[in-house]
């Protein structure tokens, strides 16, 4: 067990838990024998779904009395949270008993409980919520997605370093190209903070990433840039817009290809390409937001995803630990 990556899993968060969480663990284990799952939650409920489906050398259930509810405010969750599955899973990484923690539960509560338990990386002022987005040539890391509504130029520079480090830990063979999300590509566009950040990054001598200037919202999927940086307000709006657009395209495509005989014939003729297109936009395959800036990464799975989506976020956990993310951030800050 000592050479396995130890993932602390909050099994009681998100829709359909703990069944969905356990099914995600079972699905993940089929293709990855490098993970050891420390599962925090109601032992009786978890055992109903995991019984004999995974070798006991690869998991341990830590029985917990309470859970953080989706309706809890972050403050309520923190006040009564010390015996919840979420708190104890985070405490497991604090005590170095696990390498990384994941939850599909209440996002606000997760961020607050993580900040209460875990230290910040030295010289980082604010943690950021980051995620993977598909683009034409692969994936991009985007941050911040809502953890910080207001940011200084130093925060945005820190996010650039952390985002580039995350990209490099997930994709070791690729070079990070960093850009600031802005309302135009010209140097004079944007507010004072983003223009100041541009000047700092433009003159910063670093081998850790290439600074590509500004990127506009309509260029996010082009693939020329693979680390996109913004404040949390702008990033969250961009994320929700992209998710809504992807869902709209898939929904309208289904209607067009199943509404009449011509559509059905067309879909049969193009079934391979349609499957490929659908898979490219499938949000389950890039599920898993990463809370970075703390001395241990915290992964947030979407509460509404299914077991395949949760399994994908377990893959992200594995790659982050193998990619040595925290040390990369510390080295790049130097």
Residue fraction in strands: 15-25%
- Helical/strand content category: alpha/beta
CATH architecture annotation name of the largest domain: 3-Layer(aba) Sandwich
In whole angstroms, the N-to-C terminal distance is 34 Å
Shape: globular
CATH topology of the largest domain: Isopropylmalate Dehydrogenase
- Determine the fraction of residues in helical runs and give it as a percent range: 40-55%
Mean pLDDT: 87
* Rg on CA atoms, Å: 20 Å
The total strand number stands at: 11
Task: Give the domain tally.
Answer: 2
> Strand sequence of the main sheet, in spatial order?
3-2-1-4-11-10-5-6-9-7-8
Protein described:
- The chain is α/β, with parallel strands linked by helices and 334 residues long.
- It folds into 2 domains: 1-121 and 293-326, Isopropylmalate Dehydrogenase (3-Layer(aba) Sandwich); 125-291, Isopropylmalate Dehydrogenase.
- 45% of the residues lie in helices and 17% in strands.
- It has 12 helices and 11 strands.
- An 11-stranded mixed sheet has the order 3-2-1-4-11-10-5-6-9-7-8, sandwiched between helices.
- Helix 1 (19-31) crosses helix 2 (43-50), helix 1 packs across helix 11 (307-322) and helix 4 packs parallel to helix 5 (107-117).
- The longest helix has 27 residues, at 232-258.
- It is globular, with a radius of gyration of 20 Å.
- The mean pLDDT is 87.
Question: TL;DR of this structure?
Answer:
The chain contains 12 helices and 11 strands. The chain has 334 residues and is α/β, with parallel strands linked by helices.
